[in-house]
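Predict the assembly for these three chains.
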Amino acid sequence: MSAFSLNHVYESQQFDRSLLDIVFSTADEMKADLQTRDRQHADALKGKIMASLFYEPSTRTRFSFESAMARLGGAILTTENAKEFSSAAKGESLYDSTHVMCGYADVIVMRHSEPGSAKTAAEVSTVPVINAGDGSGQHPTQALLDLYTLKDSFSNIDGVSIAMVGDLKYGRTVRSLSYLLTKYDKIKIYYVSPDVCRMDDDIKTYLTQNQIEWAEEDDLTKVLPLVDCVYMTRIQKERFHDPEDYVHAAGKYILDLKKVQMMKADAIIMHPLPRVDEIPQEVDQDPRARYFEQALNGLYIRMALLKLLLDQ
Amino acid sequence: MSAFSLNHVYESQQFDRSLLDIVFSTADEMKADLQTRDRQHADALKGKIMASLFYEPSTRTRFSFESAMARLGGAILTTENAKEFSSAAKGESLYDSTHVMCGYADVIVMRHSEPGSAKTAAEVSTVPVINAGDGSGQHPTQALLDLYTLKDSFSNIDGVSIAMVGDLKYGRTVRSLSYLLTKYDKIKIYYVSPDVCRMDDDIKTYLTQNQIEWAEEDDLTKVLPLVDCVYMTRIQKERFHDPEDYVHAAGKYILDLKKVQMMKADAIIMHPLPRVDEIPQEVDQDPRARYFEQALNGLYIRMALLKLLLDQ
Amino acid sequence: MSAFSLNHVYESQQFDRSLLDIVFSTADEMKADLQTRDRQHADALKGKIMASLFYEPSTRTRFSFESAMARLGGAILTTENAKEFSSAAKGESLYDSTHVMCGYADVIVMRHSEPGSAKTAAEVSTVPVINAGDGSGQHPTQALLDLYTLKDSFSNIDGVSIAMVGDLKYGRTVRSLSYLLTKYDKIKIYYVSPDVCRMDDDIKTYLTQNQIEWAEEDDLTKVLPLVDCVYMTRIQKERFHDPEDYVHAAGKYILDLKKVQMMKADAIIMHPLPRVDEIPQEVDQDPRARYFEQALNGLYIRMALLKLLLDQ
């Protein structure tokens, strides 16, 4: 499997374009393998153990990783309750927990509320650590599956124009995706959000430094006809001081079927899920709706990462 | 496996007598296979994944399903915490959760507090959904294992007389079992309960329409000598307005060894478990006590359903 | 596997020296097997099911058992929530829970808050029960792995001198380890603790009756140069009436690098983990620090027990 040089996956910054290519082509291979009856990779990780160490529950992400491991024939140890480790009462450090846990498993998938915790764990661990979300920090496998969904839809990510819509200030996924898009050429990003949750300057500066075209816009309908992808996110009520503002903002950023009709015929709609009401269910039948496919792409990406990290 | 035509199992009403026959003969086959050293079905579901989606914990039911899957060589993803999905905070619909989850598993076993939720999930899911209890609604695999226990004891269910005892108004199991007994001939049902928790009229009307003989009785001792099966259930304190009434009622419906002696020699005692004190431990040694066997029958029934749904 | 005569493992008292020898040599075999690429025991328990019945969460212990089972190719049913079984609301007895559970699994690993519960479960169960800690009672696999760590370090446990430090009154591990050391010759034990948490008389009397030399000491630095092993445990704040006393005591029993230098060059430091601050992280690099190895030995011991109980 040649040039996959990572021992851990804790942040998007670890990936350059050649690593992304390896991950995506391995994901393609996994996807194809799952469609065969006589699966070639069904026992690829037989005898290996994955520990799901979730310090906060996230059934969707955990099941996606565990399904990936099971589809490759590996075994799973799981907890949604890992914070019991580091409880005030017992006071054990993440350092000690990781040190012990890496004796029991061949790969650790970790979800933690503290930014940077996956990287800390990776420094101690003798086995690969994969970050499944560390608070307001990173969620690199989500960023990879988002990018993979673009690649899957347009075959070439270069040249794609994308609108990111909703809560851009606090949204971990849109930040990571923006970051990774700088690896590609002729990207154009539109940030569409209410004033209170605009994309932070650090990302915008980074994009400019990397010759990525970007613009801000608060009117979703203006942007819809222009882009290849509309990436929707939830707008959270608690960001708004005045409940009136929330109702107004939420209404403006709902992508209903009428707005969908303003999009290009071959454009796509993405969403990291869970959604609340920013995409009504009526949109699900539109061929542009790709969010459930996107969730499924998480399986292929996680299979690819597990295989690349464990089966070298 | 020929004529097993179901894609999902969400309610007892899906089963007619020919489907019941297929389930029971497959359960027989599973039971026999487990007793062999060189098990023929040990890898029947190798490479398949079952997701246990429990929106409320029920260790017994969950383990019964997961043991069934493991005995057939399948893999398991599990949560007792699935309600985190649909939390007020995130607000995701069961529709979306199911849509995502069916990409990660080959069969979904769901426990939910909301009646009808398993059927809703089945409508969306691209993989089989099995209802493991939906609130006050259905618990079809319990009804199947109850019926299978009768069949296992009397070889022919036709002609069986059964007393259902305890909380008949709120007891999901006695309602479903009553319903399924209409598929058989010459059944006689005695409903034995305190006044406050008598069987509802809908079931009694349904029985009459289907030519099933039934009677109501509040004196357990009168019925004991007449029946082939005494199906005990818990009487819950909170149903009674006056605590005195509860003590009186509970006392009347305790099946102690003295009362057991009033039963026919070849009659059987069933209980869906957990029990509290309606059957004292002294009864366990009596050969008529079949409630632990009944729990074990749950394993065979669930193996049968998994095999029929996944290995066609 | 000859003379392993136990059907269950619920307390240290079940082990005599010949049983300990069998467990330790099997653990050696497991450890060696894990280091081979073409593992001989990878499928030793294929088709077997272990149920982790944790009435209170303990991710570390649970993962250690589950990793052991997975390394031998077995399947796992798991709950950290087993107390839901015996909830006041449902009121089911451990007797009934065990009775049902032993139909679903080939071995039950149980953690419970009630002393004696594992033994109670073993009396009912038709499959092996392993005690993974029952409140203030026993934690026999911890005692076995502690002893195995001594054996692993000194090849012969006879003649070992050991200081047990910290909370000796409430510490389950030091009590069990003291008990098992009576099976060996020429042992010397130093109990080093603040006044409020000295070792209870029952153990001291038992040691004397079994010709084991022991002494009490409150100055850790005096003992350090004398012993082959320093077994550290946490001192819990809540044992002290006066917070001042705690600060003073905790300070005296911290094994920092300066104190470590007073130990023999070939002595070892053990700790059952989790640690708080009684061993600072600076000590981890010292070759005498063996607590992470000790945790790993838990894996080999548990593999050995599972194999001995299930693969006879």
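Chain A touches chain B at residues 39, 42, 57-60, 62-64, 66-67, 70-71, 76, 78, 80, 273-276, 281, 292, 295-296, 299 (CB under 8 Å). Residues 140-295 of chain A form a domain with the Rossmann fold fold (CATH 3.40.50.1370).
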